Amino acid sequence: MSTGISAERLSSAKADGGSGPSGTADAPEAAQGRGGPAPAAARPARRHNGRRLGPGRPIPYGWAIGPALLLVVWSAGSALGLIDPRNISAPWTVVTTAGDLIADGRLQTNLWTSTQRVLIGLAFGIAAGLVLAVVSGLSRLGEAVIDGPVQIKRAIPSLALIPLLILWFGIGESMKVITIALAVLVHVYIHTHNGLRTLDSRYAELAETVRLSRAQFLRHVVLPGALPSFLLGMRFAVTYAWLALVVVEQVNATSGIGYMMELARTYGQTEIIIVGLVVYGLLGLISDALVRLIQRRALSWRRTLAD
User: pTM for this one?
Assistant: First the structure.
């Protein structure tokens, strides 16, 4: 009986123009039809003066703007006499000197030697840092054994280890490559380990639910989840690889950009020293740009403020 009454009242309310007992569902339309303002929920969201929060749209070749401004300041200071050429050579002098070094083959030979050292050091450092990070990040015992020594190395500059590495490995290529690898290892380990430890625990629970093996869990969950942190570590790694190279190439080296600069210091050739510094800076900039390109391609599925 009560069900029939409720249905009868509902039909009567609908007939009167409402969608419920009091007809409140059609109130916004009625109010709007009478000229009254629509409630906030019914109004479309307003844009903030057409501006978008965040850094804005990407600037084409934005990475080159900073170095270009630095070059303009350097050129202006040299042209106006504000920079002593005995301390820092003018840009046009550096370009002329670089042309002479390229013409006699010295720049290419030393650059290739330096690049080989960095590539070998990067290969060993990335491999070791990645393995140590996976072992430490997925095992409490591994973390107890590995994390402490890596943190100690992180606090010790590579320059301070060179005397000890010379005693162990001599002054040949092994010492130079190991110094670069140690600098790279720390940054790859730190960022990858952090990426592994900050993975959402629900991924592990889901992997257990679908009965993934340990190898499948590493391949499909752990490594993709830690990839953003690993690539961030790679940006630091390539930069510090060149920084370590600057140091080791000035310790009993017979070739390389650092050796060329040390030889120029002996003869007071400031322009060659500046050429070496410019080459180091360009190599670091290009290396970082390559890693950032890989980062954008590999993480294209993410929506960030950088997009």
Answer: 0.70
Scanning 47-172, the segments in alpha helix (DSSP H) are: 65-79, 91-103, 106-138, 140-155, 158-169
Q: Which residues contact 306 (CB under 8 A, 6 or more apart)?
A: 55, 58
Q: Where are the domains of the chain?
A: 103-298
Residue 289, burial from CB neighbour count under 10 angstroms (0-12, 13-18, 19+)? middle
The contacts of residue 75 (CB under 8 Å, 6+ apart) are 90, 91, 92
Cβ contacts of 14 within 8 Å, gap of 6 or more: none
Report the distance separating Cα 112 and Cα 286, nearest Å: 15
Q: What are phi and psi of 117, to 5 degrees?
A: -60, -45
HSE-up (13 A, CA, CB side) for residue 67: 12
Label residue 119 by pLDDT band (50, 70, 90): very high
Task: Specify whether the CB–CB gap between 133 and 189 falls below 8 A.
Answer: yes
* Backbone φ, ψ for residue 5 (5° rounding): -65, -40
The type of residue at 22 is S
Q: Average pLDDT in the 182-203 region?
A: 88
Q: In CATH, which of 3.10.20.30, 1.10.3720.10, 3.40.50.150, 3.40.50.2000 is domain 103-298?
A: 1.10.3720.10
Count the neighbouring beta carbons within 10 Å of the beta carbon of residue 155.
8
Q: What are phi and psi of 254, to 5 degrees?
A: -115, 0
CA 64 → CA 139, 155, 201, 281, distances in Å?
43, 33, 41, 13
The rounded distance, in Å, linking the Cα atoms of 96 and 103 is: 11
* Mean pLDDT taken over the chain: 79
The residue ranking higher by pLDDT, 35 or 120, is 120
